[in-house]
Write a structure and sequence with these properties.
The protein has about 150 residues and is an alpha/beta fold. The protein has helices spanning about 15-30, 55-60, 75-80, 90-100, 125, 130-150, and strands at about 1-10, 35-40, 85, 110. The radius of gyration is 14 Å and the shape is globular.
């Protein structure tokens, strides 16, 4: 089983969007049993809060629900439990490295690295543009699955 943890600042916009997009993609490929997919925050700001309405609304356009998801903070223990810890931007990566104390197994990646890009996934909390964030996350998740051979 491939264990994937998506990480952003608050775990209410980008990382849950990536979590549920990837879950939908693997479901459509009948590969759900091959994956455990979750998401978390680097900060404590939104802990316990539901997914942002902008992310919920964007995913609902594609029939994807985020029901039951509440923000949680990434922990050092997550490094041992997941095969891939995937951040959305350079700031997330720095904070992930701070939380884990390093990346000796090279598990920490930025999502768009899988698509051959060093671009950050823009935070729609600030931009208000959930469409661009959605498109970038889809690109990254498709590339990630291709990287894994799915």
């Amino acid at each position: 089983m491939i264990k994937v943890l998506f990480i952003c600042h608050g775990n209410i916009c980008r990382s849950p969007m990536a979590e549920f997009i990837l879950k939908d993609m693997v479901k459509k490929k009948n590969k759900e049993a091959s994956f455990y997919i979750a998401s978390a925050a680097t900060s404590t700001e939104e802990i316990g809060n539901p997914v942002h309405h902008g992310t919920r609304n964007k995913l609902a356009q594609y029939g994807i629900s985020t029901a039951g998801k509440y923000a949680r903070q990434m922990t050092k223990k997550d490094y041992a439990e997941y095969d891939y810890l995937i951040g959305m931007d350079d700031w997330n990566i720095r904070n992930m490295l701070r939380i884990t104390g390093g990346d000796p197994e090279q598990k920490i990646k930025k999502l768009l690295e899988f698509a051959g890009s060093s671009r950050d996934i823009a935070d729609p909390w600030y931009t208000g543009n959930f469409d661009v964030t959605y498109d970038d996350i889809v690109e990254g998740c498709e590339a990630f699955l291709a990287y894994l051979g799915f």
